[in-house]
Structure formats: structure tokens, C-alpha cells
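Q: Hand in one record:
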Amino acid sequence: MHPEKQNLKQIQALLLALVVLAFPFCAWLVYQQNQPRLEMANMLACVYGFGLYAVFFSPWLPIPGRKLVSPSQRLQESVIIWFWVTYITHLTWEFGWLVFHDAIVNGKDASWTYIWWAYIDGGDYRYAEFGSTLVGMEILSVINGIVGMLGLFFWYKKPCKQNLAILLFMATAVVHLYATSLYYLTEILEGFPNVNTESIFDIGVKFIIANSPWLVMPCLVLKWGGKTLTEEPSGSLAQ
């Protein structure tokens, strides 16, 4: 691996570690150090919401040795790290919520449920319920995760099927745009019954910013996928 690419991978790994470790760290502060629950959830939302954007757009940082990296290549690097983050999220956080919903809701004060309650507290109380619309969106997300992981398998392990992988990625992007738009619109049209609108932080950071990558990044995926399918030969794309 070229040194400049290694530097990028190290930066991405550091940023991802910061986001991931923020969850158990905030849970430790709440349950072991008796820190205020909502304040820790706010801190976690900041790290998560802004940290993810830092990860996704890290390929655009002015890293030494990367001046000759083209915008197209940087875009590909951005969407590839997005694929890993979003598909793993679907198959862990969202799948876990679907399977363990009752235990999560009834175990609000249990440390293992904090990764969900940190968002429910002020972010969106729909996750404390089990409404059919939200359940349907989360089932779509889990299916998206499975389809996306299949795409990543083709992308890295089956060079002759990279065009198929791109089509799968683009399909998941369409589902992301639909599900996330529905997620926002249903809450907005109902007058924000599940989000604390009295707190700019809750509605601005937890509800809007923390979920916004699922609107922003799919648009970039569709742009990248369309451009790549028409310009690049299959089998020469994976990093």
C-alpha cells in the first residue's frame, strides 16, 4: 500500500475508533460514574453525527502525497467507507433493535441498552415504541445491509462482477433515500410528536444531523455509480 493511502486509512481508522468507542465510554460515564444521562447522550450525538462526516469526507483532506489523487478517486474512497459503515450499522444497531426491542425498552437502565437509549432520549421516541411504519423502514434497512454486504463481496472478491456490485450499491442508495425521506417526513407531518423540539440540540443534532448522512451519501453513491459504470472497465476498481 502506498504511504499516502496508508495515511488515509490510519486517519479513517482513528476517526471510526473515536465514534465507536464513544458508545461504551458514554455508557460507562452514565452507569459507573453517575454522569447526567441526557448530557452524555448529547455528547455522544455530537461525536457520532460530526464524526461520521469526518470519516466519509476524510479522502478530501489535504494529506501529504495525495495532491495527484483525482476527484473521482476521492469520491470512490468516500463512498466505499460509507458502504462499510452503513451496512454494518444496519446489521447491528438496527437489526438489534428489531430483535431485542422489548428488552431494550424494558431495560432502559441497563448499560447494554444505552447504545439505543442514547438516541431515544431526545432524539426520536419512536424507537421506544414499535410502530409499523418505523418497523417497516428498519426491515428495509436490514435487507439493505444484506444486499450491500453482497455487493462488497463482489467488489473485493469477484473483480469480474464489479459492475453488478455497483448496481447493488446504487440499489441500496435508492432505498436509503426513500426510507430516510419517509423517516423525516412522517415525523415532520405529524408535528414532531416524538422529538423534543424545545431543544435545538435534540432536533438539530440528534434528529437532523445524525440521520442526514443517509440522505447525503446515497446521492454521492448514485453520482459515483453512474459515472463509474459509464467510464471505467470492470475489474480495475477495487482498492
